[in-house]
Amino acid sequence: MLSNLPPHSESNFENHEDTKKPANGVSSSQNPTRKQKKTKVADTSVLSYKEELAKGRFTTLAEQTKQLLAAGKALTSRQISNALGVERSSITAPIKQLETAGEIVIAYLAKCPTKGKKVRHYKLAGQHD
C-alpha cells in the first residue's frame, strides 16, 4: 500500500515561495522599501487603514477612557469597560498607563455599584469634583 506513494524527495520541502505577484506586479522582495508581509493583507487594505488612522478615526482605549472621564463623573474600571464595550481586563492596562503618566487619578474609594466591593473611582487629573 505504501509502495504506491510517490518517492520522498527533499526538493519538495525546500523553501517554497508563493509565485503569485501582487496586483501592482511588484513583489515585496523586489521593493526594498516595503517590509515582507507576514499576513495576506491586500495593499489597498493597508493603505485604507493608514488613511483612516491619519484622520484620527481610530483611538486607543486610553484615549477613549480619557474622553469618557472628561464628562466629569468619576468611574470605576468596570463602568469604563462597560461604557466602551470591552472586557474589564482589557481596560486595566490603559488605566494603569494613564495613572502612571499622571493623566488620571483615583478620585475616591467606594463600594462598586455593580459588585458592592470597595473599588477605585477614577477621574481626570486636575478635574474638580
Structure description:
With 129 residues, the chain is of the alpha+beta class. The chain folds into two domains: 23-58, no CATH class; 61-124, Arc Repressor Mutant, subunit A (Orthogonal Bundle). 33% of the residues lie in helices and 12% in strands. The protein has a two-stranded antiparallel ribbon with strand order 1-2. A hairpin with a 6-residue loop joins strand 1 and strand 2 (118-124). Helix 2 (61-69) crosses helix 4 and helix 3 (77-84) crosses helix 4. Mean pLDDT is 77; it is low at 9-19.
- Read across the widest sheet, the strand sequence of neighbours is 1-2
Mean pLDDT: 77
Query: Could you estimate the helical fraction of the residues in percent?
Result: 25-40%
Largest sheet: 2 strands, antiparallel
Tell me the strand percentage band: 5-15%
Report the top-level CATH class of the largest domain.
Mainly Alpha
CATH architecture of the largest domain: Orthogonal Bundle
End-to-end Cα distance, whole Å, is: 81 Å
Molecular shape: elongated
Which stretches are poorly predicted, pLDDT < 50 over at least 5 residues? Answer: 9-19
Radius of gyration: 26 Å
Output the structural class: alpha+beta
Within the CATH hierarchy, at the fold level, what is the topology of the largest domain?
A: Arc Repressor Mutant, subunit A
**Total beta strands:** 2
